[in-house]
Specification:
The structure is a single chain. This protein is of the alpha/beta class and 354 residues long. It has 13 helices and 9 strands. Strands 1, 2, 3, 4, 5, 6, 7, 8 and 9 form a 9-stranded mixed beta sheet that branches. Helix 1 packs across helix 2 and helix 1 crosses helix 12.
């Protein structure tokens, strides 16, 4: 197995610092998920950090599946290689895509595509026609890419990390948390299926859309089904905004940010309440509820500055920028907070989320 499963979250390693076991909550966010790639790459590089479980949706689900698949095949090195291979393939495909930023985009929109004729045409088309009309054969290029990089049989057979993937049930509006033994390409596609771009993915006779609408991501599987009490949220969607949006696409983008953050805010509210009960000694040890510490790795200022349409920008230079930002922020977090793991939360949940 990749990880120890100590109750305390620590495991003394021969001749070095103790391994501290965490769980990861990975948000979605289109190509902004390359930031999460950078975070994971740096955490995998540090053998003091063990990962017991991952809860994810959308791009976070892709990153989570890549990590677990790579670990199952060749440990930490394999996980870093599989993650790098996927994002490299995505950037390579973007070189030949008609969806390219124009010179004006590069000057004015912070990695956006808003002046791209192809982007503008696509924006207009998807508001008039559904993916059922535009894509009757249900062709999804992501399926081909996932098959080329992820061995789902290896991922399910003996997963070294518990992976929980969230999707939105279209009929009920409820979240569906897929357990580690259920993860396949349809589950990942369901978790990434934006309704205006792709048809709902049917699993077991039920249609599913992107999980970000109801859980971005779900925290409770990590609290209930993992022994580690350390939850590290990799925050991709900025919580705040630098300014009040005035353009139509910017308004829609901000609405989506608020919507996609609302579910994790609700869960943080519940965890903060329970933590308060712990601190007051009002939770009995036999209640089956453990103390949970919350941590966050983010690049809030960078993400606030990116244009709404940049989530569809997969050019290699942009992916590399996000990857490096992820590594830098993970490094800063490790330097500042490694010693706090197992002892205390490193963010004020009330200040950040409430």
């Amino acid at each position: 197995m990749f990880l120890p499963h100590p109750d305390s979250g620590d495991d003394a390693r021969d001749g070095g610092a103790p391994m501290k076991t965490v769980t990861l909550a990975l948000q979605g966010g289109g190509t902004h998920g390359a930031f999460t790639w950078g975070v994971l790459d740096r955490l995998l590089e540090d053998e003091r950090i063990g990962i017991e479980g991952i809860s994810a949706t959308s791009a976070g689900a892709i990153n989570g599946a890549l990590l677990v698949c790579g670990l199952a095949q060749d440990g930490r090195r394999g996980a870093r290689e599989v993650l790098g291979r996927f994002w490299s393939h995505l950037g390579g495909a973007a070189r030949f895509s008609p969806l390219q930023p124009t010179p004006l985009d590069r000057l004015t929109t912070r990695w956006g595509l808003s002046y791209s004729p192809v982007y503008q045409f696509a924006e207009a088309i998807v508001r008039l026609f559904s993916p059922y009309q535009l894509n009757p054969l249900d062709i999804n290029p992501l399926r081909v890419l996932l098959r080329a990089v992820i061995d789902f049989d290896a991922l399910r057979r003996n997963p070294p990390v518990k992976l929980f993937v969230s999707a939105t049930n279209v009929r009920t509006g409820k979240v569906r948390i897929f357990d580690p033994h259920e993860i396949d390409e349809d589950v990942i596609l369901a978790a990434t299926s934006l309704p205006h771009l792709f048809r709902a993915v049917e699993i077991g006779g039920e249609p599913y859309w992107d999980g970000g609408y109801v859980a971005n991501p779900a925290i409770y599987p990590l609290v209930r089904q993992c022994r580690s009490g350390e939850v590290v949220i990799v925050q991709v969607n900025p919580i705040g905004a630098r300014e009040v949006p005035w353009a139509a696409d910017a308004i829609l983008h901000r609405i989506n940010e608020i919507s996609f953050n609302s579910s994790v805010m609700r869960e943080m509210h519940a965890l903060a309440f329970i933590s308060g009960l712990f601190d007051r000694g009002w939770v009995h040890r036999l209640a089956g509820i453990k103390k949970t510490h919350i941590h966050m790795i983010h690049a809030e200022e960078l993400m606030k500055d990116l244009h709404a349409s940049s989530k569809f920008n997969a050019e290699p230079a942009f992916l590399d920028l996000l990857f490096e930002a992820g590594r830098v922020q993970a490094e800063r977090w490790l330097v500042r907070h490694y010693d706090d793991l197992g002892k205390t939360s490193t963010i004020d949940v009330n200040e950040v989320y409430l």
